C-alpha cells in the first residue's frame, strides 16, 4: 500500500463502559471533556493544512490559471479538509454519542 489513513477511534474500554452503563454522570462528564479537548486540538491542527491550501490557491491566482481550475482546486481542498476533520474528530464525536445513546438514553445533554 502506498499510504494509509489514520482514523481516530474511541478507546474500546471507554466505549464498552458507556454502552454497559458502567460510569457515573460525573465520570461521563470527565470523558466528555477529555474528548472535547482532543477534538478541539485536532480541529485547530487543520489550520496548518488550510494555510498550505491557501498558498496553493495564491500560486494558482498568481499564475493566472483558469477559473474552472481554481474552482476545481477549491472543491478538492474542501473535500480533503472535511475528510481530514471527519477522520480525526468527527469519528470520535459519532462514536461517543452513539455509545452514550445506547448506555444512557436519557443523557442527551452530555453529547458532544
Structure description:
- The protein is 74% helix and 0% strand.
- It has 112 residues and is mainly α.
- The chain has three helices and no strands.
- The mean pLDDT is 88.
Low-confidence stretches: none
Radius of gyration: 19 Å
Tell me the number of strands. 0
- Our measurement of the CA-to-CA distance between the termini, rounded to an integer number of angstroms, reads 34 Å
Helix content: over 70%
Sheet bearing the most strands, described? none
Taken as a percent bin, the fraction of beta residues is under 5%
**What is the overall shape?**
elongated
Category from helices, strands and their pairing: mainly alpha
Count of individual helical segments: 3
SSE succession: HHH
Average predicted local confidence, pLDDT? 88
Brief digest:
By secondary structure, the chain is an all-alpha fold. It contains three helices and no strands.
Key phrases:
single chain, 112 residues, mainly alpha, 74% helix, 0% strand, elongated
Fold blueprint:
Blueprint: H1 12-19, H2 25-62, H3 67-103
Helix pairs in contact: 1-3, 2-3
